[in-house]
Amino acid sequence: MAAPAPAVNAAPARLEARPLALIRQALGGPAGVPGKAARLARVLAAYARGSELDARLDRLRRIGLIEAIPTRIQLAVGAADMLRFWISPASADYYEKMGISYGFHQVLRFLDEPASLTDPVGFFSTRDGIIGHLMQVVHANPVYDLQLLQMFEDGLDELTAQLGQMLDGTHPRAASIRAIVEEPDYHERLLAFITAFRIDPTIPPLLRSNVAASGEFSALERTFGSLTGAMRYFTRLPTSPREAARHLHTVKEFPAHLA
User: What is the pLDDT of residues 202-213, one digit of tens each?
Assistant: First the structure.
C-alpha cells in the first residue's frame, strides 16, 4: 500500500528535524547509493563528451528555446556569472529569511543527489538529475529548468509523473527529498504551474517568495530565470581565453548592459 502523502500545510522536515536526522534522511538507504554514484559519474563523464553537449544545444536551438549557441568559453564564463551574481546571492537571501543554514543545506543536497551540485548550467545533467534538482529545491524561477528538460523528448512528461509520485507518497526518493525541500506545498504548486506552462509557456513564472517580493533580483531574474534569457546573456560574453579571464577578474558586479 502506498504511503499517504504529507499534508501540504505541515511544516517541512527541513525546518523542524534535527541535523543528524536530516542527514540520515537525505542519505537514504544503502540501496540508493549505486544509483547516486552512477548519476554522478554520468554527469562528470559528460564534460568530456563534446558531441553530446553539441547535440543538446542544437536541439534547444531547433525547438526555439535558445537563439544562438554559446561557445565553450562563453558557457564557462556564463556559468560562473550565473552562479556568483544570481544563484548564490538569491539563494543565500532566501535561506537567511527562512532561518536555514545555506552551507548545511548544500551538504544535504549533496547527500541526497551528488550530481545536483556538479553542473550549474544543467547541460551535462541527466533527465532524472534535472528532475531531482527541481523537486529538491524551491526554485527562484523554475522556467530555466523546464526549458532545459526539453533537451529530452519526455522530459516534461517524466517531471509531471514524478511530481505526482511525490504528492501521493510513492516516489522512491520521497523521504530524502522531503528532508531538503524548504516549503511543504512546493511540489503541489510546481505541478500546477507545469500543467499551465505546458499549455501556455508565456504565463507569469512561479517565483520564489524572496524574488517575487524584492526588486533587488528583478533584473537578474529576467536574465537568468529562463534558459532563453540566460543563453542570450552568455552569447554576449567574451569568446577568447584572455578576455574571458579579464572579465572574471575585473567584473565584480552584474553587468546590466549585457542583460
Answer: 999 999 999 998
Q: Is 188 left (phi over 0), alpha (psi -120 to 50) or beta?
A: alpha
Round to whole Å and give the CA distance between 109 and 105. Answer: 6
Question: CB within 8 A of 140, min separation 6: which ones?
Answer: 86, 87, 90, 91, 94, 207, 208, 210, 211, 217, 221, 225
- pLDDT tens digit sequence for 87-142: 999 999 998 998 888 788 778 877 877 776 677 789 988 899 899 989 999 999 99
Cell numbers at 5, concatenated: 502523502
Question: What pTM was computed for the model?
Answer: 0.82
> Residue 107 is placed in which grid cell?
551538504
Per-residue cell: 43: 554527469
Q: Are 70 and 244 in contact (CB under 8 A)?
A: no
Please state, as a whole number, how many other Cβ atoms lie within 10 Å of the Cβ of residue 195: 11
- Report the amino acid identity of residue 101: S
Cell output for 197: 506552462
| CA–CA dist 95, 73 (Å, integer) | 31
Give whole-number Cα distances, 175 to 26, 93, 109, 246, in Å: 7, 26, 13, 45
CA distance 258 to 146: 24
Residue 9: CB atoms within 10 A of its CB come to: 7
Extract the C-alpha cell encoding 6.
504529507
Is the distance from CB of 146 to CB of 193 less than 8 angstroms? no
Within a 13 Å sphere around the CA of 104, how many CA atoms are in the beta-carbon half?
16
